[in-house]
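Appendix B. Raw example, untouched.
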Amino acid sequence: MGKSMTDVIEQQELIQKLIDCGYGKLVEVLLDGNSEVYTKKGRLNKSGACRVLGWKPKELEQALDQCREILGDIF
């Protein structure tokens, strides 16, 4: 079953909210589907994401925490 148009619009709004807060590069890398960023089971490979982003692990953790705060109760 596909996503409803409302779900798609809500996702786009959340993505735009993160981009507007300065996390465009992170969003781009996470949505790209790069095999370095995700494990075979579809989980985030933090080491791979750090390599792609050129960040240190602590930077990635802080960015992910801030994104969770921005998105609030959704996650």
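End of appendix B.
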